[in-house]
Amino acid sequence: xxxxxxxxxxxxxxxxxxxxxxxxxxxxxxxxxxxxxxxxxxxxxxxxxxxxxxxxxxxxxxxxxxxxxxxxxxxxxxxxxxxxxxxxxxxxxxxxxxxxxxxxxxxxxxxxxxxxxxxxxxxxxxxxxxxxxxxxxxxxxxxxxxxxxxxxxxxxxxxxxxxxxxxxxxxxxxxxxxxxxxxxxxxxxxxxxxxxxxxxxxxxxxxxxxxxxxxxxxxxxxxxxxxxxxxxxxxxxxxxxxxxxxxxxx
Length: 250
Description:
Elements: H1 2-27, H2 33-37, E1 41-42, E2 52-54, E3 64-67, E4 70-73, E5 76-77, E6 83-84, E7 89-91, E8 98-106, E9 111-118, E10 132-137, E11 177-184, E12 187-192, E13 195-201, H3 205-212, E14 229-232, E15 239-248
């Protein structure tokens, strides 16, 4: 009898775990009725890469896949065994004033980024788009975290321009971080796991001063765009994005 009771307990426990896992999966890459009413729409349905294409391409690059309910960048190597970077992935649509939310998970020592207000008319730099970037990084293991000025190349910073707050609630490698990126008029905010980690205004003296000290100082028109694509950067490392949704602000 004790053995039968133990077996029954294990079966029930297994069913509960399976049910919870299915429930969690069912809520990934979906919108609630309230979100739909608020104007949110998914940029990734969890099954296809519809609505995305390569930067300066009409198709999806081979390195971007659907993996574990996420839009994943799979590391690629050339014939010599060296990592291949790019092309980056962009939305087919462009956005002006918007709120973007998503979750990202980075590999150990990994580097990626969420660029916004991206224009394909701007000159490329090393094959990548030149635009504002919310940095995605393993701060503990990637050397970029210690470069730049005052930590302005760390996770959630406005890359090479404005550092994220020192007390930002960054989760460790292997766990998903939730971000909000808000652009309304000329005002822009970066949020990480429920905390606002930086804000700035396009055209402000503070931003102009930051640009003058950055790698973008000689890029005509940098930081002036009011509309553009959302871009996920391929920096050669594995990264995962999910629950990608956007609403346009009026």
